[in-house]
Amino acid sequence: VSTQSTGFQTFQHYFKQINLRIMESEQVERAVEALMKHCRAQKTNDLTSNDEKVSVQVVFKKVPSKPKHPIRLTMSHPTGGSEPNICLITKDPQRQYKDLVKSHGITVGRVIDIGKMKKKFKELEAKRVLCNSYDCFLVDERVLPIVPRWLGKYFYTKGKAPIQVNLKKTDLSKEFSDAIRSFMVSNLGKGNNISVPCGRVSFDNDQLIDNVNSTIKSLCKNVKPGMKNVKAIYLKTETSVALPVYNALGVAPMKIS
């Protein structure tokens, strides 16, 4: 049996187990298990394959209202490692915020204020170097509206969209801990679907299950009216088929032969 057919057989067994009209954690567990089995089967003959991203894709019944600012979805586990190298972008002056994070016992790779950032990283190549030098970019929410446009799309294609933080929070350590477990949705209201990276193929199943569940929960909390406007939910890697987890009509949108 080829590795490809083994993967498809895994999906066939998955479809026999589920009721797509019910959105529950057990269904997410089955979807993650089926997708990971499929990925392992594919990697048997492809030892050079990358550690692909695993994403939750959500299709809405109606296009959601466009929020004034991007929304932050917080997951159970960081998608970029438990101790990512952080670059913090702040208001001027940066020294004030270096001292602030240090006083809270927070470790960051770099603190740079918006003024110095605009001077030092004008050129596209400089921005690319900056993007590739850190795992995660946190941004003072007071300057967040101007940062994405200035950084450009390279940061987004690399999965490093700036994540907002409130530097006025009393418990700043928790704010940073939540932020590195988050993803900023910037295209809400521009179409009827969104895709949120929630982990990688190298994650263990429990981590992926936690992140998928927390992503859906966070999305429904932040995008009204929650599950009532969700038409379908899929789980996929960068190269796999989209595996349905939920469908309001109860119909699988694909047939495995």
List the helices and strands and how they pair.
Blueprint: H1 3-17, H2 25-43, E1 53-60, E2 71-74, E3 86-90, H3 94-103, E4 110-113, H4 114-120, H5 124-133, E5 136-140, H6 147-151, H7 154-157, E6 163-165, H8 172-179, E7 182-185, E8 193-200, H9 205-222, E9 230-237, E10 243-247
Helix pairs in contact: 1-2, 2-9
Task: Please explain how this structure is put together.
This protein has helices at residues 3-17, 25-43, 94-103, 114-120, 124-133, 147-151, 154-157, 172-179, 205-222; strands at 53-60, 71-74, 86-90, 110-113, 136-140, 163-165, 182-185, 193-200, 230-237, 243-247. The strands form three sheets. Strands 8-1-9-10 form a four-stranded antiparallel beta sheet. A four-stranded parallel beta sheet has the order 4-3-5-6. Helix content is 37%, strand content 21%. Mean pLDDT is 84; it is low at 1-7 and 253-257. By secondary structure, it is of the alpha/beta class. The protein is globular and about 60 Å long.
| Largest sheet descriptor | 4 strands, antiparallel
> So how many helices?
9
Structural class: alpha/beta
> Averaged pLDDT, please?
84
Helix fraction by DSSP (H/I, runs of at least 4): 25-40%
Separation of termini?
15 Å
Radius of gyration: 20 Å
Q: Count every beta strand, where a strand is a DSSP E run of 2 or more residues.
A: 10
- Low-pLDDT ranges: 1-7, 253-257
Strand content: 15-25%
Could you spell the SSE succession in H and E letters?
HHEEEHEHHEHHEHEEHEE
Lateral strand order in the biggest sheet: 8-1-9-10
**What is the overall shape?**
globular
Identify the notable features of this structure and list them briefly.
single chain, 257 residues, 4-stranded parallel beta sheet, 37% helix, disordered C terminus
